[in-house]
Amino acid sequence: MEAAVAQRLLALAAVAFLGALAALAVIEHRASGAAATSTPIGAAAPGGAWYGALAASRGTAGDAERTSCGLVLTARSLGVTHPVLPCGAKVIIRFGGQALLTEVIDNRLESAGRQFELTEALAARLGLNGTQEIDWRFAVAPTRR
After folding, report:
1. Cβ atoms within 10 Å, residue 124
2. I need a labelling partner for 70 at 20 to 30 A (CA). Which of 8, 87, 119, 123 fits?
3. What top-level class would CATH report for the domain 41-140?
């Protein structure tokens, strides 16, 4: 009787092990496929173009500065301020031959005369100085095949 129970336990352990290997293989396959297409693409503006907007740096983040979205900014924070787009909305900002994925982190503009304010770190990455015309799109997740 003990031998039969031991065989059944061994068979169950083998099935569980094979199931775990299959699950890991599926996860690895999905991860490797996602790595090749993980860059979000932009949802095109009407006519297939990008939206245009004026943008500038919001300046240096203050000591423990909290945004209207509830985030605490640091000198390394990357994100944009937009008065209408919801907190957390993913957008692609294009300027100077670069396109970077970022998100809305605040809804209160520091200064008038622009539609977007970029954190100082994001503006530096894009090479944006002063108030400049940028292109932007909503980011959408890549489609899986």
Report:
1. 13
2. 123
3. mainly beta
